[in-house]
Backbone:
């Protein structure tokens, strides 16, 4: 057996002890708590377990593991930390499905306490000591609303609250922020894409899909973190009973899935049986796959087009995180609909929630990225002081958008996130003599439309997919890392078409949303087409910058399938890519085109059946056409960098 994913042996033992303890105390089975008929009154503060005193040393007062009642009677485990000062305080709220120690240590909330803010952390329902049934982002709006009301009513609260957090702690803020709760004054949301159903051209449904294809990194995350049947204390315990159990026992979820087992199983068909093959605990993964990319259920707990946060917001996204594209598009929608100066976005060339983990000699994957450190505490406190305390002297960001540009490795600010085609754009056209296969082929990128027509073909076999090497693969698993890596090994494959520009005579600063249009055909009724943007250094190193994918059945929309006809050519526009990269003088621009990028994306089986419930596969002959009547191209938004 290999290393356990999501739990170790001690966690296993603790969980068994906890189950025995519940029986010994005659408290019933440790299962999902039934909902009470009437919401109980808020309890008196409970004594804290000894281990909790290590958290937030700046706190003067600690009220930990309070049971805060929601409207349906479920009680959510809530911690309150008050600052050294006396009086009533504005509050920063963090709601999380993760271990409390991870959330509080990872987000530097001592700085908020030192600045006179109360800090409240709450476990989402069904997680750890919170009652109720666990669903991913389940009840984020209702439970968030009820928690805001509870905070505003406390004698230590001044009635104003800001929400804060990264990943799930950001995602659960988005829907809540659209509801207009009177206590909610501001939000700090980093890497929040899972809380977005649709944003502009991105119909990713919580980053679960892209271009109609399942982003397969979710398998590892669901099996490791998002088990439906979480171990729980029974409902209705008194504070004394809860504390008595908690001093000796720890509730930890247990996933007995080894890394080796996952690596062996991920090629299994049908895909929907992956959890069963692994012997994984029950998760919502199967339900999510059955929904597909257009089910209205995605909107239930996620923000979508037409919904806008009603409070000032400080956002951040990481360009090598699956959250970045929808999160950035969502920000642009919010910024356009909000008063000037109320919304700000930071973009790093980094990974998921890695904002505070940078150093002076940083790398993104294997690519040197320089010193991307930033004083997030100062930025966040100034933002909160301005909007929560009415401090007009607290500065806000001078421009709404700040990005760390790779290549020149420095921060640059803009008024908006540019979009190719609506701002200054550099277009490269695919060209060549019809043999663009591999790095040694004749594929080229031209700055002028090609005069001659040609077709590049390759065979795509689902049994031998192109293996992902870097990119936006947060949570992918043990052998897949996000970030920038040399792509030349991938570019040696016959099923990868490679198109490269001439050597650049001057720097090409690219920032914003990148468009691609391809003219394609296939002898299969359905297949995928992938595109990858690459920065080629003078020594040949080929750093991946961004990638995208489109399942052909969804080329006319995610809500209906339209299959292909052999011999017919289709103009397709995969979902836009997002980048902040300066292609330096002496470098070259490259794109790769293929039909798989696995396991970042689930494989197309090249058939007309449901791709997640069938085992039938076929080998497809796929083609990319280019020439005067088939202007396959990539459009890069070009920006001017200040000196």
Residues:
């Amino acid at each position: 057996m290999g290393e356990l994913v999501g739990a170790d042996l001690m966690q296993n033992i603790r969980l068994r002890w906890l189950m025995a303890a519940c029986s010994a105390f005659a408290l019933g089975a440790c299962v999902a708590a039934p909902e009470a008929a009437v919401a109980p009154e808020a309890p008196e503060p409970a004594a804290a377990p000894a281990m909790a005193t290590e958290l937030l040393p700046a706190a003067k007062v600690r009220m930990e593991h309070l049971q805060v009642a929601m409207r349906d009677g479920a009680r959510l485990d809530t911690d309150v930390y008050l600052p050294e000062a006396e009086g009533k305080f504005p509050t920063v709220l963090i709601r999380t499905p993760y271990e409390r120690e991870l959330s509080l240590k990872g987000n530097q909330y001592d700085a908020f306490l030192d600045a006179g803010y109360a800090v409240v952390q709450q476990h989402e329902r069904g997680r750890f000591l919170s009652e109720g049934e666990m669903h991913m982002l389940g009840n984020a709006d209702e439970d968030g609303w009820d928690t805001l009301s509870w905070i505003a009513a406390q004698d230590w609260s001044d009635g104003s609250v800001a929400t804060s957090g990264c990943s799930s702690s950001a995602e659960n803020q988005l829907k809540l922020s659209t509801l207009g709760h009177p206590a909610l004054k501001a939000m700090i949301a980093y890497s929040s894409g899972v809380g977005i159903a649709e944003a502009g051209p991105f119909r990713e449904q919580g980053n679960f899909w892209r271009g109609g294809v399942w982003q397969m990194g979710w398998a590892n995350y669901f099996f490791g973190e998002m088990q439906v049947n979480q171990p729980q204390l029974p409902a209705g315990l008194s504070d004394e009973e809860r504390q008595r159990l908690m001093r000796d026992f720890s509730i930890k979820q247990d996933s007995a899935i080894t890394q080796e087992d996952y690596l062996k199983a991920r090629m299994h068909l049908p895909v929907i049986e992956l959890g069963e093959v692994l012997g994984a605990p029950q998760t919502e993964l199967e339900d999510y796959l059955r929904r597909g990319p257009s089910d209205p259920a995605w909107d239930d707990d996620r923000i979508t087009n037409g919904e806008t946060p009603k409070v000032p917001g400080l956002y951040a996204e990481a360009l090598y995180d699956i959250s970045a594209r929808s999160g950035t598009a969502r920000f642009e929608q919010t910024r356009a609909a909000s008063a000037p100066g109320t919304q700000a976005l930071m973009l790093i060339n980094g990974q998921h929630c890695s904002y505070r983990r940078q150093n002076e000699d940083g790398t993104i994957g294997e690519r040197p990225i320089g010193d991307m450190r930033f004083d997030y505490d100062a930025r966040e406190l100034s933002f909160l002081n301005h909007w929560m305390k009415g401090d007009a002297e607290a500065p806000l960001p001078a421009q709404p958008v700040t990005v760390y540009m790779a290549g020149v490795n420095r921060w640059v600010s803009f008024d908006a996130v540019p979009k190719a085609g609506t701002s200054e754009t550099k277009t490269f056209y695919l060209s060549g003599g019809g043999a663009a296969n591999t790095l040694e082929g004749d594929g080229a990128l031209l700055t002028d439309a090609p005069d001659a027509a040609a077709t590049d073909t390759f065979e795509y076999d689902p049994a031998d997919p192109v293996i992902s090497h870097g990119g936006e693969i947060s949570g992918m698993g043990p052998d897949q890392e996000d970030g920038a890596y040399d792509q030349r090994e991938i570019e040696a494959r016959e099923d990868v078409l490679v198109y490269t520009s001439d050597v650049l005579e001057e720097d090409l600063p690219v920032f914003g949303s990148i468009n691609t249009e391809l003219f394609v055909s296939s002898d299969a009724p359905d297949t995928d087409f992938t595109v990858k943007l690459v920065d080629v250094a003078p020594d040949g190193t080929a750093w991946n910058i961004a990638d995208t994918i489109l399942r052909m059945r969804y080329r006319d929309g995610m809500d209906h399938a339209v299959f292909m006809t052999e011999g017919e050519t289709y103009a397709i526009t995969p979902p836009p890519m997002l980048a902040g990269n300066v292609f330096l003088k002496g470098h070259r621009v490259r794109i790769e085109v293929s039909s798989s990028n696995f396991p970042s994306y689930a494989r197309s089986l090249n058939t007309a059946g449901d791709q997640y419930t069938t085992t039938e596969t076929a080998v497809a002959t796929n083609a990319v056409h280019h020439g005067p009547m088939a202007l396959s191209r990539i459009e890069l938004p070009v920006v001017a960098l200040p000196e």
Observations:
- The first strand starts at residue 61 and ends at 69.
